[in-house]
């Protein structure tokens, strides 16, 4: 949460608490928390005090201590104004350097609030446990402002629930102990300007035993095979683990009229006074076996607790569905799908078409209530702690909830693992797609996909929202690094990653514990949006309009999806962007609404038989109200809708549209059939829970070796005057620059959080650490402030800081220039010694004005967690072999600039990439002519490996000469010809480039 600092410590409170709390043990007097007379100043967290926060710079409210004649207590109140569009409020953090406050002896908290009678809810939170107010658990409740004037709001501590959608550091113990309380927070209502006033925050009442003791069950749902016995563990837990002072009883009973399915039980469990916290008793419910095939049956186990807080939910014993054809693994998947579909209600079908965010469903009760088909983790939406074990446990807990539904249809859980399992701390983080495109190594791309799949599936996740098959045509786009490159032929060649993720094209490997369902995104044209066409917030290009002829659409943007469908990709995600096909008379239409593209081209012409998943709230961008958004998107061919926090509205709306006949039963049955087919292929009906047998390999040396190779092969050597690279271990090397020792910058966006972050955010090796590990004589000075004399060569590592999506669009607070500090480091080091400059970025950076002073220049892209791979090529352990996946411009005014353009005069052309440790063939034009003949022969014979090798030799010859406006165009086109298998023509084009220089 971004927070605007305003406040300081509460030393008066610390002094008052012990004295006042001791006044009357039996009936304690109210204990003041805040009187707002000046004792709670405004300062920066986590020092202690009041501070405001909000979703952007306009959302934090104002705060002031105002003198009021009508103050409920004293002379002053806390008052303020607000106008919040996203979220905003204020917090009182208690001083972190002093002991936390013990509120466990009290019944609750109360305060005076000046009502505006606006009918809006105001959230009130407690900060409990942890190291300080900014590293604690949040427990939340709310009250409604439905009154005028001052009113004392009393909130018993039993009203607070654990907040599931946001935690500063996540769970400490998920128990509101109140023995270590660090403060409170107020979230103000959004949507309209308002005023507020608050006074006299205090603790009241005496805690009874039900505040300090709880009865818990070990699970909310207990699936059991017909004829088996369910065992429910009932545990007594107390604050501070103290024994209970009074007896606790738990009366239990199942419904008394079970028919032939189970034996009813009833009785009482007793925990006598003095029982230790953690003591467990068991209740057993025996089910009966008959010969009837049945759907699942729920048996509620009613618990009546005296002397402690009862469980939040009634435990459910579930007799598993049995004997029905869809459960028969010997039947073909098509028959199983048809049988299950025939049994489902409209509401159950709509639930399968609904995907919610994990943070929105809390502990998961709504999964069964709404028969949800899917959950996802958005970028940065992780369990606590963020470990493989916690991921598996979380997802298993959600899958358990699905077992309480009638047909026990398992969830399919999805995550954006776009360069490794990037939400998981400790996972192997690969180079982003732009770097993989630079490798020109389809086999390596497949291996990176396989590592990603293995690490994702080992945490219980069977579905990956990757790969992005966008063809980036303008590097001002904040998502350009998610693309393999600007040439659809390059994107096509790297789609081997789909097999790495999914295995065989027919889906037979999807049930394996190291494979996941892949997603081709974003259909179609997201990489072609025009600069300035976006209407999303402050974005300039992302989610904008792609305007193309039908021929351009087919050749550039649709082509990669033909390949993906042929490779058996299981899901496709439409783009946020709009498509405007010149001459079709429709104008710009949001892709989530384009039935001609989704139903017509993707499912019809291409024969895609997987399912289409919307992007995050993507249907909301369709013009019209939410009901029409549902109707339009589903009728256009969207099978499952990602409605992260609006899942109830989507499911309800879809049912209503179907009942009204505006969405046909046939369309819904088609969508659900597609979804169920993939769930059966994944083996989720037989094995819904996490198979963690591969968890030991997450972040393993074996997996990191693949990432290291990918990092090495992704490095593109643009210039190497005087053979500065590779470095020699005998040289004294001076390293500088903002990205030399920053693994957050090195991994980029979509790393642990959506936008990524600078700093030490994940385990791995920075480029500086890689250089040191290589055994070189290395000195580091980030800003080049250290003396520069006495060194043989400098390595300056500069570039971008992380961003994702439209947040990173050029013009939205970003440009293609190096920072002032980076420019200064380059200038200082390169003036003092021979220098190599590495640009760690997701897109080209404008370097032309400094190019003459730089001896060696490397496009380092975003290499991931394995900086050792970068050091491998810098020190010559591996040769430089990478090639530009996009054109490197001379100026921003040249953008968009791409291979095949009629006018083409870049700094470095598409496909450019010098090599090291390789002998360049001699003979110039004569050798090129001979290579052209040999390449044509190889092409005719279908000898692809030989043909590619011949083109590579020709490229190395041409790169011995400088780039010119005349040579750049045929040079770039040669790489496109190579990727399309026209080896002879590729060498001929290189010969033309050679002659043009």
TrEMBL record:
Domain CBM11: from-to ranges: 31-206
Domain Calx-beta stretches: 213-305
Superkingdom, natural source: Bacteria
Glycoside hydrolase family 3 C-terminal domain location: 716-915
Keywords: Calcium, Glycosidase, Hydrolase, Repeat, Signal
SUPFAM superfamilies in UniProt: (Trans)glycosidases (SSF51445), Beta-D-glucan exohydrolase, C-terminal domain (SSF52279), CalX-like (SSF141072), Galactose-binding domain-like (SSF49785)
Residues of the signal peptide: 1-24
InterPro entries membership: CalX-like_sf, Calx_beta, CBM11, Cellulose_Degrad_GH3, Galactose-bd-like_sf, GH, Glyco_hydro_3_AS, Glyco_hydro_3_C
Reactions catalysed, as given in the entry: Hydrolysis of terminal, non-reducing beta-D-glucosyl residues with release of beta-D-glucose
Leading EC class: hydrolase
Residues annotated as domain Glycoside hydrolase family 3 N-terminal: 346-677
Single GO term (MF): hydrolase activity
One Pfam family of this chain: Calx-beta
EC numbers for this chain: 3.2.1.21
Family assignment from sequence similarity: Belongs to the glycosyl hydrolase 3 family.
Protein's name according to its UniProt entry: beta-glucosidase
Source taxonomy: Bacteria, Bacillati, Actinomycetota, Actinomycetes, Kitasatosporales
């Amino acid at each position: 949460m971004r927070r605007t600092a305003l406040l300081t410590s509460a030393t008066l409170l610390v002094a008052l608490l012990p004295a006042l709390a001791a006044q009357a043990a039996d009936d304690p007097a109210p204990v003041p928390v805040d009187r707002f007379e000046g004792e709670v100043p405004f300062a920066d967290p986590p020092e202690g005090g009041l501070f405001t926060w909000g979703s952007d710079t306009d959302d934090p409210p104002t705060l002031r201590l105002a003198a009021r004649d009508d103050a409920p207590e004293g002379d002053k109140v806390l008052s303020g104004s607000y106008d919040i569009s996203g979220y905003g409020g204020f917090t009182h953090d208690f001083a972190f350097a002093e002991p936390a406050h013990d509120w466990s002896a009290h019944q609750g908290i109360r305060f005076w609030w000046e009502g505006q009678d606006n009918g809006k809810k105001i959230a009130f939170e407690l900060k409990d446990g942890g190291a300080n107010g900014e590293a604690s658990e949040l427990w939340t409740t709310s009250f409604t402002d439905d009154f005028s004037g001052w009113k004392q709001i009393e909130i018993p501590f039993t009203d607070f629930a654990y907040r599931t959608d946001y935690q500063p550091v996540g769970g400490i113990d998920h128990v509101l102990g109140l023995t270590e309380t660090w403060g409170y927070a107020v979230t103000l209502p959004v949507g309209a300007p308002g005023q507020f006033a608050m006074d006299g925050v205090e603790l009241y009442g005496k805690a009874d035993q039900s505040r300090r003791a709880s009865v818990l069950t070990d699970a909310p749902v207990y699936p059991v095979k017909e004829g088996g016995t369910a065992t429910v563990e009932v545990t007594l837990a107390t604050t501070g683990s103290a024994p209970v002072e009074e007896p606790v009883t738990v009366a239990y009973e199942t419904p008394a009229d079970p028919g032939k399915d189970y034996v009813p039980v009833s009785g009482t469990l007793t925990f006598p006074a003095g029982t230790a916290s953690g003591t467990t008793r068991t209740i057993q419910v025996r089910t009966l076996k008959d010969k009837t095939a049945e759907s699942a049956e729920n048996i509620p186990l009613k618990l009546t607790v005296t002397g402690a807080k009862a469980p939040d939910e009634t435990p459910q014993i579930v007799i598993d569905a049995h004997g029905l054809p869809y459960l028969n693994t010997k039947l073909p998947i098509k028959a199983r799908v048809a049988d299950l579909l025939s049994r489902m209600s409209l509401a159950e079908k709509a639930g399968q078409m609904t995907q919610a965010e994990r943070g929105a469903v809390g502990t998961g009760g709504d999964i069964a209530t709404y028969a949800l088909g899917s959950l996802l983790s958005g970028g940065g939406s992780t369990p606590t702690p963020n470990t493989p074990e916690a991921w598996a446990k979380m997802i298993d807990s959600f899958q358990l909830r699905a077992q309480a539904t009638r047909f026990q249809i398992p969830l399919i859980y999805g995550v954006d693992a776009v360069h490794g399992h990037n939400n998981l701390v400790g996972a192997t983080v690969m180079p982003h797609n732009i770097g993989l495109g630079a490798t020109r190594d389809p086999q390596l791309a497949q291996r990176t996909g396989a590592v990603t799949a293995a690490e994702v599936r080992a945490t219980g996740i069977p579905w990956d929202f990757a790969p992005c098959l966008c063809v980036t045509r303008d590097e001002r786009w904040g998502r350009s690094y998610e693309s393999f490159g600007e040439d659809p032929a390059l994107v096509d060649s790297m789609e081997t990653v789909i097999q790495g993720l999914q295995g065989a094209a027919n889906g037979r490997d999807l049930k394996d514990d190291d494979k996941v369902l892949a997603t081709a995104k974003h259909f179609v044209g997201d990489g072609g949006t025009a600069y300035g066409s976006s209407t999303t917030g402050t974005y300039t290009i992302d989610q904008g309009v792609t305007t193309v002829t039908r021929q351009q659409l087919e050749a550039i943007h649709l082509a990669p999806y033909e390949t993906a469908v042929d490779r058996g990709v299981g899901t496709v995600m439409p783009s946020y962007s709009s498509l405007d096909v010149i001459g079709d008379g429709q104008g710009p239409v949001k892709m989530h609404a384009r039935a001609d593209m989704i139903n017509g081209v993707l499912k019809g012409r291409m024969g895609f038989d997987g399912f289409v998943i919307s992007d995050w709230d993507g249907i909301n961008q369709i013009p019209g109200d939410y009901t029409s958004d549902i109707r339009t998107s589903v009728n256009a061919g969207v099978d499952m809708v990602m409605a992260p926090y609006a899942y109830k509205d989507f499911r309800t709306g879809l049912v209503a549209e179907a009942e009204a006949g505006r969405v046909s039963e046939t369309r819904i049955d088609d969508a659900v059939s597609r979804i169920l087919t993939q769930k059966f292929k994944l083996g989720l009906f037989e094995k819904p829970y996490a198979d963690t047998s591969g968890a030991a390999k997450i972040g393993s040396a074996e997996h990191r070796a693949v990432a290291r190779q990918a990092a090495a092969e992704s490095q593109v050597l643009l210039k190497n005057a005087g053979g500065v690279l590779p470095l020699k271990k005998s040289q004294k090397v001076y390293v500088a620059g903002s990205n030399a020792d920053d693994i957050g910058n090195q991994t980029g966006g979509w790393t642990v959080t959506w936008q990524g972050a600078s700093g030490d955010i994940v385990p791995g090796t920075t480029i500086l650490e890689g250089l040191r590990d290589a055994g070189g004589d290395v000195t580091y000075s980030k800003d080049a402030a250290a003396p520069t004399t006495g060194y043989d060569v400098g390595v300056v590592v500069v570039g971008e800081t992380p961003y994702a999506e439209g947040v990173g669009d050029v013009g939205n607070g970003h440009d293609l220039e190096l920072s002032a500090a980076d420019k200064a480091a380059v200038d200082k080091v390169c003036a003092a010694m021979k220098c190599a400059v590495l640009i760690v970025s997701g897109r080209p950076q404008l370097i032309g004005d400094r190019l003459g002073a730089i001896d060696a220049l490397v496009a380092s892209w975003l290499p991931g967690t394995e900086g050792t791979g970068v050091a491998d090529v810098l020190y010559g352990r591996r040769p430089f072999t990478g090639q530009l996946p996009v054109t490197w411009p001379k100026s921003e005014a040249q953008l968009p600039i791409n291979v095949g353009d009629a006018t083409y005069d870049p700094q470095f052309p598409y496909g450019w990439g010098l090599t090291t440790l390789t002998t360049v063939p001699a003979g110039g034009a004569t050798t090129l002519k001979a290579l052209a003949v040999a390449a044509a022969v190889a092409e005719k014979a279908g000898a692809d490996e030989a043909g590619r090798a011949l083109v590579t030799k020709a490229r190395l010859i041409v790169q011995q000469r400088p780039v010119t406006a005349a040579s750049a165009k045929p040079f770039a086109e040669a790489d496109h010809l190579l990727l399309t298998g026209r080896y002879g023509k590729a060498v001929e084009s290189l010969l033309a480039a050679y002659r043009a220089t």
